[in-house]
């Protein structure tokens, strides 16, 4: 399955969205994608339909596909859904984390801090998302894991659009406290810390800010021929 052209396109676009290389509103031209990936337009259309089903791409009649631009209402809905799901995940994860999980999460916090210090935004965003997804994995519920995967992707778009401080990643000390609670199987603390962490992320959103202007697809997929033209 992974080798199919449409799966490669889906994977590349999701990676680019997760790292904020493809911000909300970017046009995803069928011809451009088929040229970039060396596949036919039927593959591209299937990929775009898959991404639309995950609510990260919007198909506009007669205009084509665009990276979804979540409205303020959608942004609030996504964070409310994340709180509901991640509280349940926290409850399930408490008491299940292995020493390997705790090691992974502590290394992840260090990696994220290092990426942030060196200004490596894509690595910082990747680490931040990996942290939340690892806890979902510990909770061992595939359905919640899949929901959270979609919601964290949509969160990245939302944070890219509305985050006041241009920061899209998570506070380091909050992650550290979450790992402490997980390590001590402190279910109540884990749920409370998770909830508070997500409320902090949401509180940083400013819906009065002018959305940042999108760039072209070629540039965002790091395949640009002439970035100067598109900046
Ligand atoms: Zn976080």
UniProtKB/TrEMBL annotation:
HTH gntR-type domain segment(s): 3-70
Listed Pfam families: FCD (PF07729), GntR (PF00392)
Keyword hit for 4Fe-4S: no
Matches recorded under InterPro entries: GntR_C (IPR011711), TF_FadR/GntR_C (IPR008920), Tscrpt_reg_HTH_GntR (IPR000524), WH-like_DNA-bd_sf (IPR036388), WH_DNA-bd_sf (IPR036390)
Keywords: DNA-binding, Plasmid, Transcription, Transcription regulation
Name of the protein this chain belongs to: FCD domain-containing protein
Organism: Ponticoccus alexandrii
């Amino acid at each position: 399955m992974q080798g199919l052209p449409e799966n490669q396109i889906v994977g590349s676009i999701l990676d680019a969205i997760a790292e904020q290389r493809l911000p909300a509103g970017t046009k995803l031209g069928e011809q451009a994608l088929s040229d970039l990936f060396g596949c036919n337009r039927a593959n591209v259309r299937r990929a775009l339909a898959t991404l639309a089903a995950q609510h990260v791409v919007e198909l506009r009649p007669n205009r084509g596909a665009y990276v979804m631009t979540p409205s303020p209402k959608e942004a609030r809905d996504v964070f409310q859904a994340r709180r509901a799901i991640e509280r349940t995940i926290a409850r399930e994860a408490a008491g299940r984390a292995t020493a390997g999980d705790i090691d992974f999460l502590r290394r992840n916090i260090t990696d994220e801090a290092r990426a942030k210090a060196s200004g490596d935004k894509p690595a910082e965003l990747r680490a931040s998302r990996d942290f939340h997804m690892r806890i979902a994995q510990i909770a061992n519920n595939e359905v919640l894991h899949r929901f959270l995967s979609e919601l964290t992707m949509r969160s990245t778009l939302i944070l890219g659009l509305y985050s006041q401080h241009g920061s899209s990643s998570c506070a380091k000390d909050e992650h550290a406290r979450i790992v402490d609670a997980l390590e001590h199987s402190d279910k109540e603390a884990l749920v409370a810390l998770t909830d508070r962490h997500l409320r902090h992320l949401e509180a940083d959103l400013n819906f009065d800010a002018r959305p940042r202007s999108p760039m072209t697809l070629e540039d965002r997929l790091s395949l640009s021929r002439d970035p100067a033209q598109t900046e």
